[in-house]
Amino acid sequence: MKILHTSDWHIGRTFHGADLLAEQEAVLGHLACVVEEENVDVVLVSGDVYDRAVPSAEAVRIATAAMTRLREAGAELVITPGNHDSAARLGAFAGFAAAGGLHLRTTIAGLAEPVLLRDEHGPVAIYGIPYLEPEPARHALGVPEARGHTGVLTEAMTRIRADLAGRDAGIRSVVLAHAFVTGGAASESERTIAVGGVEQVPGSVFDGVDYVALGHLHGPQRLAEHLRYSGSPLAYSFSEARQRKSVWLAELGAEGLAEVRRHELPVPRPLATVEGELAGLLADPELTAVEQSYLSVTLIDRVRPLDAMRKLRERFPFAVHLDWRPAGGGPASPRYAEAVRGRGDEEITKNFLADTRGAPPNDREADLLSRALESAGKAEATGERAGESE
Question: I need a labelling partner for 357 at 20 to 30 A (CA). Which of 126, 288, 339, 386 fits?
Answer without folding.
Answer: 288
